[in-house]
Structures are given as C-alpha cells and as structure tokens.
Queue: 2 jobs
Job 1
Amino acid sequence: MGCCGDVDDEAPPSPLVSPPSDLLEPLNSLRRQASLSSGPDFTISPINSNFSALLCKDTLRSILEKLALADLARAACVCRLWRSLASDREMQIRAFMSPWKLRDVIGNPSSGSFWRDNSLSKFAFPHRVCRGDSIASLAVKYSVSGEVTC
Amino acid sequence: MAPKNKNPNGENVVPEVQQKKTQALILKSSDGEEFSISKSAAGLSVAIKNMMEDDCAGGVIPLPLVDGGTLARVITYLNKHAEDGASDEDKRKFDEEFLSGMEVDVLCDVALAGNYLDIRGLFHDVCQRIVNGMKNKSVEWVRKTFRIESDFTAEEEEQIKKEYAWAWEGVDSDAD
C-alpha cells in the first residue's frame, strides 16, 4: 500500500470527524438492541457492500481454514474461487485431522462423500476388539481426542 | 506537575508514555472521511504501527481500502481495546456485543479491514463469526447469503452435485 500521503498532507486539514456520532449511534443502539434481541430486520450494512472480503484470497483462505470438515467440503462446491482454495489438499487434511490430532492421512479418497464427516468409522485400527471395548474406550486407548458419540 | 517532569529549561514535560497516548493521528477512509484516533489505539493495528514507526505517516494516514462506515467500527474496536482499565473480561464482553449485531456483509467488510490493517484479534474473531454462521448450511444457502453466482459449467455443476449430493442438503433450515 502507498504509505506516504503527500497529496493529502498538502491539503488544509478539514474539520475532523471524531468518530461521527451518526455512525456510532446506530452501533450503540445496536449493542443495546443486541442484548435484548437480535432483530433480523435491523441492519447497519452499507448498501453498496459487495462482500469484497470473499474475493480477497487471503481473507477467504483464513475463513475457510476455520471451517469444520463438512462445511469445508460444501464450500468447495460454491464456485471456482472457493473450490480452488477449499479443495486444497492440505486444508482438507487439516480439517479432517484437527478433531483427532492425527499425524497424516494417506491416499486419496475415491469419492467426495469421504469429506462428509470424520467420524471414527473412517478409521481402520490394527486392533483386536476385545469384550468390553467401546468406541469411547478405543478413543481413550489411542489418545484420540475430540467429540466421541457412541 | 512533579519536578521530574520538567526539562533542563524548567518547562513542563509530558511524560513520554502519556504523550504517546494523547497524541492523535488522523485516519482517512476511502470515501474521504477523517477520523481522529489516539496513537496508542492506532498502534494496535500492526500496519498502522509500522507506518508510524517508519515515520511516513505524516499525521494523516490514508486507508484507500477501508470505507468510512467500516473504519468507524474498527476505530470503536481499537478504542475499547486501548482503553485504560478495561479488563480482559470487559473486552471479551465488548467483542461479543460488537460482533453479534453485525450482518454478514458488514462482518465481511470488517474482516477485510482487519486483515488489511493487521489487527489479529479482530480479524480472527470476525472470521470465526462468519464460519459459525456457515455451520451446517447448504451450498445454496452459502451462495445466496454471500451473493455468489456459481461459475461452474453445467457439466461441472452436475458432476459436483453428483459427487457431493449431501452438500446440498442443509442440515439446518435454509429459511433464515
């Protein structure tokens, strides 16, 4: 970005708007409203907003990185730009592994439905199932953390 | 004023820390609005801090990628986080209320500004909020909400729908 505003410096300082009250007032009243109820019809958005953040690869990547696996897979179906970022293998693998603290995922899934969830059924353990073993006890045994639903 | 705050000529000197806090900068939005902000609050933005350190700010910092409405929100955030005596709990509560009222397009604008101005905490929180909103939503919902037109060819679209059929079924109702 240009950092030296030489042109602007030449101009006489115009009266300062010290955060304009007409802009902050809606925010303040919004905060008051928000604590009471989040009215869906109340909007402070500028009309000309065009979601430019989602066109900025950097920002979009930061958002997609935080998505859970299934949401990330959906994001990959939205449009070309989203697909190019969300189908990035590294990102998918990270989303897949994050609840399980896995070290790596080997091979490529044969179908997109692989990314639908990352439940325990997706894993093959070299484990002899003994009487009394449950999914939860296996998870504990293999130090798998995250939500375990039986 | 205590004697230690006088310089050799006997004039009062504002302690450096205080001076830093009270000095103001001017941030200029893309649509020409000017906002006064203390240097301590502005310094929470790594990008602005770097400009101040390089001393090329010249008192007025133009921010050609941030519109006035968004900048006002960012400044509200920075002021709160630079506030003396605001505990972490206060700030957390403020952040929650600050973000909870924002529509998704405003969140996107603030995310972009947070990234551009390098305000990590704000950027992270806003992204997380957008992500929370996308949880369990169908592809159609995401397209509609973010006003994204699918630019896949008809064949590609069909292929994706076949491969990811489940992705079109929003777990949550698409109504909201």
Job 2
Amino acid sequence: MDQKGFIRADVREKVTGEARYGDDLVFSRMLYARAVHCPHPRARILKIDGKKAMEIPGVVGIYTAGDVPGLNQGPQDKPMLASEIANSAGDGVAVVAAETQEAADRGAALVEVAYEPLPAVLDPEEALASRPPVVLYQEDGLTDNVACRHRVVKGDVEKGFREAEVILERTYRTQRIQHSAIEADTAVAVPEKDGITVYCPCKFPYHIKARVAQGCGLAQNQVRIVQPAIGGSFGGKDIDIVVIAVRAATVALRTGRPCKMTWSREECMQEGSKRHPFRLTYRVGAMRDGRITAIKIDGVADAGAYRSRSLATIWRAAVEAAGPYEIPNVETDIRAAFTNNVYSDAVRGFGSPQVDFASESLIDELARELNMDPLALRRRNIVHEGSVNATGQVLTGVSIDRCLDRLEELFPLGEPSVTPEGKLRARGIACLHRGESYGAAARDADVAGTDVRAFADGSVGIYTSISEVGQGTHTAMAKICADVLGLPLEQVRVCPVDTAFVPDSGATAGSRGTISGGNAVRIAAESLRDILRGAAEGEEDVIFQDGWLCRKDGRRLMTFREAVQICQSRGVRTDAAGQWVAPRTGWDFEKHQGKTYYSFSYGAAGAEVEIDPVTGKVEVLDLLCLHDIGKIVNYPEACGQIAGGVAMALGYTLTEELESRDGVLKNKNFDTYLLPTAMDIHRLRAIPLEETAAENPLGVHGVGEASTALVAPAVANAIARASGARLRTLPFSLERVRSALEKEER
Amino acid sequence: MEFLRPQALEEALSLLAEHPAYTILAGGTDVVVRRREGRLAPEGYLDVTLVPELREIWNGESIFVGAAVTCRELEESPILAAVCPLLAAAASTVGSPQIRSRATLGGNVANASPAADLIPALTAADAQVVIQGRQGTRRAALPDLIQGPGRCALEPGELILGVVLEPFRETARWSFDKIGRRNALAIARMNGAVVLEEEGGQMRNVRLCVGAAARRPVRFRGAEALLEGQNPDKDLFRRAGEAVSQAILEETGMRESSRYKLPVAVEFTARLLENAARRGQA
Amino acid sequence: MKLEFILNDKPVSLEVEPDMTLLDLLRERLQMTGTKRSCGVGECGACTVIVDGEPVNACLYLAGQLPGRWVYTVEGLSKDGKLSALQQAFLDHHAVQCGFCTPGMLMSAKALLLKNPHPTEAEIRRALSGNLCRCTGYEAIVEAVGAAAERGSS
C-alpha cells in the first residue's frame, strides 16, 4: 500500500490565501443583502414595514415572499421567505438589499414586522401523539405531523423474544447539532442578459440549479451555478444554499444588479439546517451464549419544520439500526415528526451516527448483562459473507470480522484503571456497517456523468459536478484519470465546477464522491483511451504509460500529445463522456424488505477515556478508527477523511448541542456551540484498510461519513467500563457525566 | 466617531472627564463582541492602551500590575513568575492565544463576568484594585468593587489603573483550577484559587475564592476559618469544600445549575486545597 | 482618520473609520481576502493575523488601534511566489482540506514559531487552540507545524 500519497491540486492556493471563496467575490455594482428573521417558533406574519429601513442611506430595497419571482415554497419545503406563517424561529421573512453590508445590516435591524404568535409544537413525541396541539401542514392535506416513516421487518420478533433467555430494553437520545463548516453559507447572484449566474459553495450543483430556476421562475437552461472554493460542507450547503441563492437572485433580478448574501455566523446557527435529534428505544433478546434472537426498535426523529432530506436520513437510520449483526427477527419502525423547531437535514453521516450510538451502546449493555466480553459478543453476532441482513439482503464483500481482528490487535480492551489522581480510565469499542451512496429509497437516481477531454497540447480536463468541498475528491479523480491514460498527475486537471459546462454528477453526499464520480471518470477515461488508440493504426494491444502510447513490450509509438493531435487532424473528437450508473437496488414498501444499498462498508473504532469524577469532564485520550475502504486512492487524504469525521464525532459525543428555549435556539455562535479544539484531541489514529475490494470497477468504498458514527458509542462504552455509569443521552456533558457517576455511587 | 488615544495618564483622565459616556477600550475582546451583539453602541472610544502607567508590571514594596497588561504578558512575566505565579497561571487559562494577546487585566475586572478567570486569582491574592478619578486614587478589594454580573462599581470619570498585591512569601502555597467544557476557548463552568501560608506544617492566612459559582467574587470566610491554623488534611479539605458549597447556596439560592455546581464545589474546593498543600511538599 | 501602518512589510496609508475592524479593513477596503471571516466574535480564529508579533483575531481589532503597528497576514508568508517552509509543510503533511481555517492556522503557527522555534506537540496544540478546524481533526496540522519547526532548525 502506498502510504505516501500525492499532494492535492487545490491546496497551494489555499495556503497562500489566493483561493477565492464565495464571500471573497466582488462584482461591479454589487449589492449586499441581509435577511430579517422571525423570532417566534410559529407565527402569522401580519405586516412587514420597511419604511424606517429604507431611510438608512444605502438601502435600495426590501423584498418579501411576494417578490420571489418563481415558486417560493413547495409542499412542506422550506420557503425562500416565509409568507403567511413562519413555521420556525429563524425563518427569513424579508431581505434588505443595500450598497454596503453595513447598511444592509442596519436596515434589516429596522424592518418592523408585526407577528401574531401561534401555538407551536416543539416536542416530536407530542407532534406524533394522537391529538397533537398543531398539525403543521393541514393545508397540504396532511392529517398528522408524520414527515416520513420507514419500517424494516424480518422474521417474527415476538417469536424471537419468546426464545430469548435475556431481554433488555433501553432508550437512547441524541441531540440537535450543526454542520459548522467554518465557511458561512453564502451566494452571489449575478443577473445575465437572459438568466442568472449564481456563485455559491454547494455539494449538489444541479440541485441548486433546479431549485434556483424554480425559485426565479426561469428555465433550467437560464441558470448557471458556479462553484468558488468551498469551505467545508459536512452534509450542509444544500437547501440552506438554495434559500440564500434564491434570496440573492430575487434582489439581483429585481434590481438588475449583482447581489451577495452571506449569512452571519449567527444566521447559520439560527436558520441553518441541523442534524435530526432521535429518540431510539431498543428491545433486544438474546440467549445466554450471546446469540441475539430478536431486536425491536422504535424511533422518533425531529424533522423540524420542513421536510428537506428527512426521507434519506430516516431511511438510512431504519436500514442500519439493527447494527452489523445477523439477527433472525427484526422489527424497526422510525418516524420523523414535523415540529416548529429549526429544520433538520442531512449532516455528514445521515442517520448513521444516531442509530450507531444506540445499537453499539446496546451491544455493550447486553454484554454486561450476559457477563460476556464486548468483543466476543460482537463476534458471536456479526454478519459474514453470505449473511442475510435485517432487510433480507444477502451480503457480499463483508469484512467486519477482519476489522474487529485489526481492532483487537491495535487496541486491546484491557482492564479499567484508576490514576493516582483518582481519575477513571478504560477503553471501549464499537463497530459498524454502512450502506453505500444514496440507497433504494432515494428520489434521485444514483448516476454520475463526467466528461474527459484531451487537448492538443496533451493536457486533459475533467468535467464533473462532484464537488470539491475539502475532501480532496477532485485530485482523486484526476489521479484515476491519469492512471487510465498513463499520464503524470500534473497533466490532468479537474476543471472548475460550472453547470454551464459540466454534466450532472449527482450529489457529493452519501460518501459517493469517489465511488460514483471516480468510476464515472474511469469510464470516460477508458472511452477516451479507446478513441486515442485509433491514432496508432495497425497496432494491436496499445498501452498507455508515462505519457506515451506503447506496444505491449513497452516500445514507444508516439506521445500522448501526438495521439491527440493525430485524432484531431482526422476530425475525431478527443473527448468522451462517462456515465456511472449504480447497481440496482430496490425496496418493497409492503413487506419492508429489499436490497437497500448496492454495497456496505465496514469499520471499527476504539476510544480510551479518562473521567474526572469531580467535574464530570471526559478526556478522550486515544481514538483509533479503522475503516475498510476497499481500495485507497490517496492514503494520507483517506486518513484525513477518517480523522476529520472522528473529530466531528468527538464534538457530537462531548460538547456540541443546540439547546432551545420555547422553540428559539439559545446558541448563537461558536462561543456557546462548542466544537473540539486542538487541545481536546489527544491522540487520534485514523487507519484506512484495504481488506476487501468493493464491488465496483475501482474497488473503492466511500470514506467520508462512516467515521462520524463510532466515536459516541465507543466513548459511551469506555465510560461505562471505567465507571459503571451508562450514558444514554448525547452529549456527555459535565453535568450528565457527573450525575451518572453520582447515581452509580448510590 | 471619535477615537481618543491618550498617551499619558493625566490626558486620559481629563478626556474621560470630558467624555464620560465614551467606551473605554483596551483589547476589545469584550467591547467589540458586545457591539456586534447589539448590547453596546459606543458614542466614542477612549483607548487606554497607550497610557504607559497602565502597561507596566513593577515590583516595589508591593507588586503593581497595570490595567492594560494583557493576559499574554501576565502569563509570560518573569516578575509574576517569581512573586505571584497564581496570576500567571490563571491568565494562561483565558480563551485562546489570540484572546490572550489582547484581553487585559483591567478589562477582566471591569467587565465583571462571574466566570472571569483572573478574578478568583486576584481575589485569593488579596489584590487591591487601584482606581483613579479626578479627585484622586482609591483602592478597593474585588469583592467590594464587583457587585454583580457586569456590575463593576466605578464612578463616572474613574479609570482602573491596575492592581496592587503583596508578593508571595517563601511559605506561600497556592493553586488555581478551572472547569471548562473544553480545554481551550472555554468559559469557566467553575474556577477557583487558593493562597495560604504554611508555617510549621500549619496553614495560615488562607484565602479562598471560587468563581462562576456566585453572582460576584467572594472570599469564603467560613471555609477559611475552618482551615486557619490547622494541618493539611483530606477530611478537613472536604469540610472546607462543604462550607464553600453551603455558602454558594446561601448566596445564590437553588438555581438550575445548582444541581451540578453545589456538589462539585465541595470536591473542587477540596482538590484546590490538596493541590496547594501538595505544591508545598514538592 | 488617516491610518498608517505596516502591512506585510509595506507601509499602508488610508482614510478609515477608526471603529472599523481590521478584518473589514483587510477584506473590504484592501481587498485582501486571504484572511477569512467566520464567527466575528473571536471564537474561531479564521481571521487570525499577527500584529507586532502576537496572534490576534482581526475581527476584534479596531482600526483606531492600528497606527504604527506591524501587521502580517497570510498574503505575507510566501516570498516571490515561493512558499515558506510552514506553507510547504502544510502541503506535504496534508494539513489542508477545505482550506477555510488554513490562513488563520498558518498565522497562529507562524506566531508560535517566531517565539518558540522548537515547540513540543503540546505547545503546538496550545498555540493552535484558538483556531477551529472542522475538516482535519487537527492531527495533520499539528504534524505540519512540527515538521516546519524541524525544517527551520536544520
């Protein structure tokens, strides 16, 4: 395995400060915009008065829902601007545009909005009760607050529980968190002669394009999305960007001037989408020897006020909730509720971090109940090659056994200990299976288009809308292409993402960038190679290496550049399109069974904690996270993906929590929403493995998200082993840990 | 927008008298944040960072630390390392390196946040705040000066010059500790400082302050009295902690955070005392 | 007010409002966008620059306090198109993902190495503790700073 890897193409400009991010862009005559936000979780908007705001020098206009040129709000969607009723605190109700950001800010503060506060429902369980205080979308014909529901049914759980010798029932809760890309969400809309160009960071340019067209009342061929450098996504920068882009575009179209809207950090916090909080109740039955006979899972998630990608999140949660175990009888039922809380959307990992916290905590609780070693209990139940998982899918390419072997070797559990200062130490583990890419319930087809073009000077350009959000995917794609064409990496470049030129490659989500985008590049590059072979007429078995077309014995025939020029002189196009179409999946909504994802990836993690019993502070001294990613394209960057996911998960585990009072978020900035700092991570070992090649031509698994799912249960299990205290609610704050320790003492 | 930058103390005081409503500015780490949050709309600024007297740390009979000395300077001061390492230790836990470059001792006092990190250390060090007005200077102990969250009892036209404190003696034992939710950029969930003198194995002149626990800085006289003249002892430390916890309850009443803070205060205080006593042995 | 200060070794003179932040001054007035805006309250470090040798959050530094100061930003790190050892170490050690925290990280690291050319890992972590990174988990960044320090000494 080449552990050295190669340096990314996009980083040089990032260390010099030359990289241009959305908020760095300036256009001539550009306006600046700021939104006015609703302070109530649910309210009727009676009147919006902008007179005072208009008096501020530099303010040029105030725009409300009625000014949005196209569709302001689809059914249960987040509105571009709330029109009659705002359904959550933070919703934008008006936009102030001005010559300077300062004037826009001052103007926004002076817009007077009269609200009639309405009854709200903030607790998802209450929202799903038989008589909820509010049904949010009655006007759309909904009779309840169910945003979506997914079930998985296998075997007969009641029979499984009858067979069981031990039955446990436990409830776990996860909190609302935020993507927290350090770059705030932003968009610049520039009116064109016949349409609009929007410069914005995003993870799914064609989705933004379609939604901006819809919001602006334009055809899709009139909307161009251009990506500047992107300062992180983590599952965000999707619907939030749609909203910002349409607001900026509204101003741009109404004034004929470019308009930039960059959310302040406070706006990102107050209005931006969040990770779904879950309540998960597990009932598990097992034999004394550790064999699990049945598992029943009931879950409720908080979708917040709008649907967004709740469907994909809840679906993934339901599919993965029973863990990487072969259990004969499974019943999972997870519902997401509409509430008047800030809306939930995909956050790096979709539903995995929530259910993995629950299921992997549960396994350790069961191990303790059975007086078994946690690793042994896992080995007793894990899926193997040919196992039938909870959804009835026959599994292939299973490597969780080897992940656990490596974990045991690198991170033996050992015995709990107490330091001389009285701090409690122990290790804990967790493991996972994770469905690859979109999955069967997705609305979007899992396809990715990519073009590869060879130019007369021998350079090659890749055209894709897989987005470089920081993960290094563009350099990985260039490497894949360069390998197929036998070119040095420097000769291949991924061109800037601009929907005027690049094909639709789908979302950079579900850890599909390298699988879908990479395979599409490979297909395109192979087609291009076939075309260029035509330059070496009469030769058979031409191979491409070191910038040359060669005979099989290595004898050089012509340079790559010459081949391109020969083809072009003959009128042959030297470009090729690649289309990756993911293997078929399917779901039976009646039987609650099916082939959910075309493949699964596997991983395992260990955490060593030190608990201060006085303060309740948990230090995670050592974190080891290993993921089988099949085939590694760029080793250090794969490590970086895992390490970053682990760090994000550490924040989820210990400090990150959005709290609200009466439906209004209390956290307004990074002073109260606490991301881990460099001093909160002590030792972090990210280990990508090449155990089993994935079932796609490149053999790659996704690496972006799985690492976000294992830290919380590994830490919870370590805390329980160190102290006896079992924490079932995230995050493990000072107060929760201290309180759990007190209970344990009693 | 007027932005005044006096370069001498006299000038600063006369400008302040002229513009009592202007915002006094040093490192800006609080002023600029409050301005952004709309909690402060300065009419003008009086920048005190160029006043030489406010920038000094000197060691005479007492130690004087100027109000515009930054946390970084406190952290790195050789004078403080020798004669009041407690203050340096507290300063090193403030915010982040960037904040410590700018945040000042005077700002920490004037803002009167219950969670301020320097205040328990200054209180335990028995620092006197030196305040200058047009009429002359006065001195005040922190528990008298700070009357509640954000309420520093300065008269109009008064300026904090700095603090004076007595150098630690050879027999001094001290410790500082802070509970934060993370290891940097953390607002204290609780912090505390203790200074005592060890004479013939017995504790004397115990000064104990636990912060982020009450609405204003307080010395825990009851606990101090328990310890006075006694030998260091684990059970005694715990009883002192209980006294602190009881005093906090009396001061604040039962609040949402009491469920955590009251029991923690017991053990946190005991540990502060143990650490101070242990430092003596080392 | 008329403001004169030294920016990346070059004197700058301009008319500004004294209550403008250094961050706005750099980004909006001087169009130097390498210094990033994120939280605006000194909690993320994305806008870190060096003033008179100390790392500071540009979002909390008012222009009125700048006269005569020496300010370094990320744009001042490379000379004649050649990356500094620190920048090169960030590349070599894969310490950059989305890159948005990178300028601030570099300036905090630079401030550390100016004062302490041979920091321990703990000192590096402490020096970077005012800079939030959501991408890397900090490991690669800490390594890069350590490597730059070693290179500087050799």
